[in-house]
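REVIEWER CHECKLIST
Item 1: Sequence provided? yes
Item 2: Single chain? yes
Item 3: Sequence as submitted:
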Amino acid sequence: MLIEGKLGEIRQQTGELVVVSLFEGDNKIGERTAALDAVIGGRIQALIGWGDFKGRLGESALLYPGVAGLADRVLLVGLGKSDEFDAARERQVAATVARKAQSLGITTFATVLHGASAGQLSHGLAAQALAEGTILAGYRGDLHRTVKDDEDPGKAVERVSVLVENEAQLPEVESGIRAGQVIASAANWARDLVNQPANCMTPRALADEAHRMAVEAGLGFELLGPEEMRKLGMGALLGVAQGSAEEPRFIVLEHKPQGQTGQPVVFVGKGITFDSGGISLKNQDGMEKMKGDMAGAAAVLAAMQATAALAIPMWVIGLIPATENLPSGTAYRPGDVLTSITGKTIEVISTDAEGRLILADALGYSQRYNPKAVVDLATLTGACVVALGNIAAGLFANDDGLATRVETASRASGEKVWRMPLWREYAEQIKSDVADMKNTGGRPAGAITGAMLLSKFVGTTPWVHLDIAGVSASEKDTPVQPRGATGYGVRLLVQLLRDWH
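Item 4: Structure as written out by the authors:
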């Protein structure tokens, strides 16, 4: 899809469709829309005057002006209340427009930049959010469907022109569009990775995808197999992997622009490509969704791709421990003790608490870089879903400064987080009689005790853990988010890097 900034007036556009917008409660339309309305005989103002269009968020009305030298259709979309309009709503409006165009079989259209002229958003941020919403709305998760049904939404949008009347604003708009295209395209790739079934997205296949991307993006790439893991002492990752016929992989990606020195930021993503629970077998209801237990890994891969594409001037490392968690005659058992890369020992209480085990080795590995910050993403606990539902990821941190950075990036990116406590009293629940710790502290505060275990592998390095179990996939179909994988974390991580000072 091509999204471009373009100098021009909406009233002078031809083609299949033009798009204008209105805030809720605005009885007087804006100057640009009014100029268009004059050409089509006041039909937009009439809709508003009759009360047929109120400007509510996501509301739309389609007009067929039948005027020579003008587009075939005019789409009026609602922006909601002006004091509530932000980048998230810009994405939603843009996605609503893209879905509507797609349903009509329209492949090209021109649009105003919603909200920017009223001053709620800078032109660059508005353009970025518009591009993101348009691209995210076009995602299709039917990766293995060979026959389309009546629910097929129609042709894909191929070209969008974002109209700017002031030439001085065009570079900012074009820069915003570029960033939005890169970030949203990366998020859609993360969706693809997560939506793939586990027989296609094995640890080896995930590593192959990472390598392909790294070559294309110009990232450094290193891959560790079981032998390298044994030499490093990654007993926790190898313990989880030993129940599967699929060999584990440990993926290392590096973005280091020329001249960058100092300490890197490290991203770590949980890469369980299928989680049966192991010997502590999960209930069969919904187990097919456990192909998505590598959503953290997908987010890190896609964020690294976008980081390279945007040439972010920072040293960034991406680490992904990848394996399956399956029951077999060779599987690790409850009661086993695993020795991690740091030498710390972990008593296995439940083999279904495997994510923190593979992350323990990855976080321990991260310390070789002496990082200035570590952020991990993991579909770690059902307990976090109980606590926060499907709205926000749980944020756990050992450093207030880094936590604040992530929260700021969350607000800008629209990917919500909520900080949870990590008080030392919770460590009592994971004390073991036979090892340094046990891998679960029971049902109470399950998300917190999982994070508490991870905290033991980062030392004093500023660290944030994001439990994305509730936000990595969606059961609902919305303009921005079709059912399935969300790609959560890509926008957040990239925003974190872009904001870093």
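Item 5: Key structural point noted by reviewer: The two ends are 32 Å apart (CA to CA).
Item 6: Recommendation: ____
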